[in-house]
Amino acid sequence: MAHKLKTVRNKWLGLAIGALIVVALMASSVVYGLTSITWSTALNAFTQFDGSNEHIIIIDNRVPRALIGAAVGASLAVAGALMQAITRNPLASPSILGVNAGASFAIVVAVTFFSVTSLAAFSWLAFLGAAVASLIVYVLGTLGREGLTPMKLTLAGAAIAAMFSSLTQGMLVLNEKALEDVLFWLAGSIEGRSLDMLGAVIPYIAIGLVGAVFISKKINTLVMGEDVAKGLGQRTLFVKAGAALLIVLLAGGSVAVAGPIALVGIVVPHLARFFTGSDYRWIIPYSAILGAILLLSADIAARYVIMPLEAPVGVLTAVIGTPFFVYIARREFNQL
Amino acid sequence: MTKYTSFRMKTLSFLLDRRAILIIVSLIGAVILTALISIGIGEIFIKPDAVVKALFGYGTDMNELVVKQFRFPRIAMAILAGGALAVSGAILQGMIRNPLASPDILGITWGGALATIGFLTVFSDKANALTVSIQWQPLASFIGAVLAGFLVFILSWKNGISPIRLVLIGIGLTAVLQALTTLLMIIGPIYRASDANIWITGSVHGTNGQDVLTLLPWVVVLLILLMVYSRRVNLQELGDDVAKGAGAMLLRDRITLLFISTGLAGGAVAFAGGVGFVGLMAPHIARKLVGSSFGVLVPVSALVGSMLVMIADLIGRTLFSPLEVPAGVFTAAIGAPYFIYLLYRSRNK
User: What is the pTM of this model?
Assistant: First the structure.
């Protein structure tokens, strides 16, 4: 596919513009919403906090929300890019391959059976669930003589996702109070999360993002094919395991904060490829920036679609992402 | 060929496998026996012979009320819905030639779920009371399920239907249907979300006789249609090239079969909700019993599916009594590990 930004200079420029857009969207995220706030009030909340309603909303609600939106968007997108690379499947993403469902399942089990409420525990549970789900899906997808085929992997992912979500569903039927607690979280939302929640997972997300940038050169070799990579002296198992660990950190971390947000991980890497071509050293940072942009804009839009209520941002990303998913599926799977 | 007895008519001909007939007859016996026992078990225990008496109108008034009004419709629904889902899965697996295909994955269940919660939301007044009769809910669910099935079908159309595109697009559509369902659950009051959640999990609780009589003819007609078509599924299982070479009209057959499969699954979820994994499990168990010749696979799958849902329902209403657990929880609890086992077993195919 012909990509848009050909020279290195233009790619850096694009990245810088993207970063500026992220900052602008984060600022808009603070200002727009049910309680509209003027730009000067927003600025005052930081420089001379006076304890008024607006200032409290800004500091306790809007600012964490903007930061979480950027972090979650970036990590889901990068997780998706890594997954598409190591599985060589254009439709791989944390939501399609059941990783998000596994993380949600772990958290709902903890909430219903063990009344866990601690944030640190949430993130560890999400990591555990994400890791178990990805392991099962990957093992099931690679079994057999043909090895890893997109069809097998996607079906295994969909089935594991279906399994975890029906078990989650079943627990919620038995426990109506828990349903009330987790329903909004289950739809995927970054509203009403405190900074502490982000603080609990930000180290892992940071490791995941930085690690993805470091591993990107090795990923470039890996996507040429397992045999080629081995021929070039790469220990492919080592690289794949590293990438899998990063995926678990990124996807698990974002599910712990925001719940399972659908289809960001699938759309964004394709957009990134549209701008940069197939070099993962560029795809990874572009995915991070574009993921943040997508999630922040979807979150701002989510405040307006069913005003005065708020739609969970996961609903919006699903609605935006599905046509894209269908398009990719139709384009990439042409054979009868 | 002494294993088979042939059966020929003008437009219809098939070989009957004697072993398969034996299995079908014993499965029918098992389904009837389980149904009698299941009807008897509950808050009031009724012996199987008393159940038979009550069913034919010779029991005590009390027994007749319990059996005819409450338990029999419920068990009958479990049998119908289980059978319909199982056959729907058998068709899809034969056509897509992948053991993991099932109506759950094609978005049919979630289409029904969205329509159900949409129905509850649209037809509620300000005090959240329904403005139309709840009897229309199965119709709404059915329309939703069938529409979702056809949408998947249309979106995967590109010079014909490719099984892999069908599955992938089903998965994609499921994501958006799930998201919209959650959105409607959040907008409404929590008890509505809870009702919808029970529907999504799948339960035959609260079925009445009218429901059974509505679903029965639909399922029977589709099953008969399918039996006529069963040879064509056998052909499709050999692969597209072989099927074409043998003169199959692939496209027309696929459309008809998809219609039957969607219709059956849609009918089942309309009344029983999204009872999961039955459409996946039952055809596999059936294939173990009688092999993959479609003519016998269909009735055996149907009977196995009926057993599964009936047993799941029995466990659901007795194990945690007085709490009722939807049958779908148990079909998923058995189905999911079974599914992993299947994936493991089929690794070299």
Answer: 0.80
For chain B, say whether A100 makes contact (Cβ under 8 Å): no
Structure tokens that stand for A82 in this block: 């890594």
Chain B CA closest to residue A151: B164
Chain A residues near residue B240 by CB distance under 8 angstroms: 336
Q: Print the domain residue range for B239.
A: 37-348
Domain annotation for chain A: domains and CATH numbers: 8-332 (1.10.3470.10)
Select from B176, B276, B326 the Cβ nearest to the Cβ of A322. Answer: B176
Say whether residue A32 is in contact with chain B using an 8 A CB cutoff. no
Best B167, B169, B182, B277 member to test A by mutation, with max A CBs in 10 Å, is B182
Give the DSSP letter of residue A98: T
Q: Which CATH number goes with the domain that contains B103?
A: 1.10.3470.10
Number of domains in chain B: 1
pLDDT tens-digit profile, chain B (349 residues): 456 666 666 666 666 677 888 888 999 999 999 998 888 887 778 888 888 888 887 878 878 888 878 888 889 999 999 999 999 999 888 877 777 678 877 788 888 888 888 888 887 776 666 677 777 888 888 899 889 988 888 888 777 667 778 778 888 888 888 888 888 887 777 777 777 777 777 888 877 888 888 889 889 999 888 887 777 777 777 777 777 776 666 777 878 888 899 889 988 988 888 888 898 889 989 988 888 778 788 899 999 999 999 999 998 888 877 777 888 888 887 887 787 777 677 655 5
Of B172, B200, B320, nearest to A329 by CB-CB distance is: B172
Q: What is the ipTM of this complex?
A: 0.78
**Which residues, 6+ apart, have CB-to-CB distance to B181 below 8 Å?**
B110, B113, B114, B117, B196, B200
Asked whether residue B118 is assigned to any structural domain, the reply reads: yes
**Hey, what are A35's tokens?**
């309680």
Residue A73 CB burial class (10 angstroms; 0-12, 13-18, ≥19): buried
CA dihedral sign, ordered A157, A163, A164, A168: positive
Coil, strand, or helix at residue A37?
coil
Are A163 and B98 within 8 A, CB to CB? no
SS3 B130: strand
Helix residue ranges per DSSP H, chain B? 18-40, 48-55, 61-64, 72-96, 108-122, 137-155, 163-187, 190-201, 209-236, 240-245, 250-272, 278-290, 294-318, 327-345
State the residue for tokens 């894209």.
Answer: A324
Q: Does any CB of chain B come closer than 8 Å to the CB of residue A16?
A: no
Contact A163 B344 (CB under 8 A): no
Instruction: Let me know if residue B2 belongs to a domain.
Output: no
For residue A65, what are its two tokens? 């929300």
Q: Is residue B272 part of a domain?
A: yes
Task: Kindly state whether A318 is in contact with chain B, defined as any CB-CB distance less than 8 angstroms.
Answer: yes
Give per-residue pLDDT as tens, A197-236: 788 888 889 999 999 999 988 888 888 877 888 888 888 7
How close does chain A come to B111, measured CA to CA in Å?
A: 15
Least CB-CB distance to B179: which of A144, A174, A262? A262
